[in-house]
Amino acid sequence: MKINKIMTSLIATGLFACAVNSQVWAVEKYIPDGYKVVTVETPKDVRFHVTGLDTDKNGNVFVATRFGEVWQLKNNQWSKFADGLHEPTGLLCDDDGTIIVAQKPELTRLIDVNDDGVADDYIQVSSGWNFHDNYHEFNFGPVKDNDGNLVGTLNLSHGAAKAFSLGTMGSGGGYRGWAYQVTPDKKFELYAYGLRSPAGIGRNPEGEIFFTDNQGDWVETSKLHILQKDKFYGHPIPLIDHPDYTEKQIRSMTPAQFDAIREKPVVWIPHIEVANSPGNPEWDTTKGKFGPFAGQIFIGDQTQSNIFRVIVDEVNGAYQGAVINFIGGMQSGNIRADFDNQGQLWVGQTARGWGAKGGKPFGLEKIVWDGTNPFELYDIKLTKTGFEINFTEALDANSVLNESFYIEEWNYLYSGAYGSAKHNKKQLPIKKLKLSPDNKKLIIDLDLSADKVVMIDFKGLVSHSGRKNSVSKVYYTLNQLIK
């Protein structure tokens, strides 16, 4: 009986999953030329599980930990800014110098009234959803849109008593699995629905909001979406709070019916190959301070302890694009990322609950660039006949051969099952291969079809200086062909 009570306690805190899943993982290390990972010393004897991270306009770093504290790094010194919060999983440095934290039951504004480096006021911004004290009912965000609205996402529950469920995840009501916004006058408004475990939310320079969702039931593999008002993103459980649906109606619907009304992701993120549990999307707005990838998206993954890039391609007025690994072998699970005003990418880390390849339970690292031009795939764009691939350095023309590539396609099966294997895998032969006059651009002609993921392995390519890419596989989500 005593052992059962201990196990119950571990499950409730999320620690049991880590104990069950603990294993010796093979850690793959890769990093582009010119980049290095710097480990940041965190406060001594503090369980520094970073679940919220942002930098202010002065470059000061603010961190929320899973154990309810907020810390500030200023002039290379840590100080505790706030404590007593309920497992925050998001943090925003607001324009007025205050800090907004996403606790499980509410959004909270922290104000340092007397400017002594410690929050004096904890002011509720919103609590328009229900929190049932389930360990999996996370509140992610917020980010701010162009109109000043705060936008956040709510996780579904797991194993909660009396929750409505069609499989692994559930909801006790109160907008679990929804995105919400809070207006500048604190009005809580529902925004979108059908989310499962939307652990990362971010905004691009144009003010559009994006989120990542984690692989699981009704989510074939992890994915990145643009968040749009009143749209359905695939998990049927949140429909229980939608006025147009009843429980009976939801239970009677087939996967095909849900599929017909759900949004396609910008990119599918292949499971294990790229990510298991991706965090927030972060745009490189450093204007070249971080290297040649300006405007692209960087996302960390908790399980894989890596950072990957997302290359967005606009086709027929809609976003789709590609993912490619960037840096692997970091010290812990990467769940939060933010660029500071110096062009450094800060990465907040925790392995608590689901484990991480990196091996360390928590930490903070930053990625810096020394000015060396790496030899990497820069971007990939769909053409009417295949793809255009650009590299950061000229290729050795002698390596541009059909046998330098392996290309295949597949799709995923949408269902209530936990994730999906690759279906309809097929190798794609190259019809034509052309190199641009400056040797930086490849044109590849292929027979393509919509609603596939296309993997291009270009491991045979070499730069004109004899370098190899640090990673050689790119995964393009082909929602639609060019009309």
What is the highest CATH level, the class of the largest domain? Mainly Beta
User: What class do helices, strands and sheet pairing give?
Assistant: mainly beta
So what's the overall shape? globular
Give the biggest beta sheet.
Answer: 8 strands, antiparallel
**Rg calc:** 22 Å
CATH structural architecture of the largest domain: 6 Propeller
| DSSP strand count | 35
What does this structure look like?
The protein is mainly beta. The protein has four helices and 35 strands. The protein has an eight-stranded antiparallel sheet with strand order 21-22-23-24-35-34-30-31, with no helix packed on it. The radius of gyration is 22 Å and the shape is globular. It starts with a helix and ends in a 5-residue tail after the last strand.
Task: Name some characteristics of this structure.
mainly beta; Neuraminidase; Immunoglobulin-like; 2 domains; 8-stranded antiparallel sheet; 4 helices; disordered N terminus
